[in-house]
Amino acid sequence: MPVVTVNGRSVHIQELNKEAAETIVLVHGMFSNLSVYYFNIAPLLATKYHVVLYDLKSHGMSEKALTGYDLTSMTNDLLALLEALKLQKVHLGGYSFGGLIALKMAIRFPERINKLAVIEAPDPNDDKTRGIIDEYSREFLEHYVENFTDTTKVKMGKRQMERNHRMYEYLFYQTSIKTDMEFEKDFFGSPAIETIKKPALLLYGTDSNCLNAGKHLEGLIENASLSAVPGDHNIPIQQPLVIAEALLNFFQEK
Amino acid sequence: MDTITTKLSSEEIFNLMKQFITEVIGEEFVEEMDITPESSFTKDLEMDSIEIVSFSEKIKAHFGDQIDFTGWLSSMDLDQLINLNLGMIISYIEECQ
What we know:
The complex is a heterodimer. Chain A is an alpha/beta fold. Chain A has a single domain, classed as 3-Layer(aba) Sandwich (Rossmann fold). Helices cover about 40% and strands about 20% of the residues of chain A. In chain A, helix 4 links the parallel strand 5 and strand 6. Chain A starts with a strand and ends with a helix. Chain B has a single domain, classed as Non-ribosomal Peptide Synthetase Peptidyl Carrier Protein, Chain A. Chain B contains six helices and no strands. In chain B, helix 1 packs across helix 3 and helix 1 packs across helix 6. Classes of the chains: A alpha/beta, B mainly alpha.
């Protein structure tokens, strides 16, 4: 398993087409892992680009961490990953919570970013987003697993359910993720977001409850364009090829 | 990493796949399962996508450039991936050898 050490912790990464001249780094969402890109999206992008995927802390096969889930810490980790891989400037894409990390990266380290792609990033001030964190329960987990994770179509067996349950329990009750997310609730309202000048593609599902967040971002970011594709918050799973092609076209545009 | 040069029989490939699955999900779970070429990854073996990533890694490490396992998987949609069974992987590896 390819692992790099970032800020003292081991991080699971996957790289495709290392020989390509330009690099795309993709960031997954909360309670997910790099496999959201691995099977369909990354291989298509890798026909033209070096693609780097990584598991966020406590997700997938990366090492667990009790603290540091605020966007500043998450972007410190991403910057350290770029350093570890000797990547000076990359195209950056993020899905859901990963989209927020990508936006924060473009605010803090614009010199390290070429173009920015944001898929279904929620407004952290939205009650529904924070509700996910507040309403946690076993019933909720089952509901969440059915509706919001990348395993949507698969009925989970006992081992998987327990594995996921352990991850949720760990993240919710042992780490600082809840308070760290509360801390970010004014992110879209901060003047910093309007300082983003990178060409930005905003990909949202036509039926997603995050679509308004996409419209909001389009108004805040000068060079952003919103593209709505059929589907809900799970568009990378529902429409992997549509998403992959939209990303490829966007990154290739001169 | 050990890259093999001799052709493996389908039984040898099957045993190797079983070994990789055991390494990925752990012996205690494999002991309770009856792994056959008909076993599907998601339904029978209950592997989730990140575990299939690890499994792919092991195939790549073992066979090297001989087979493009990720490329093969990327041609599948979600339904095909859900229905993927061991037998399909065994035939794919046999074809590539």
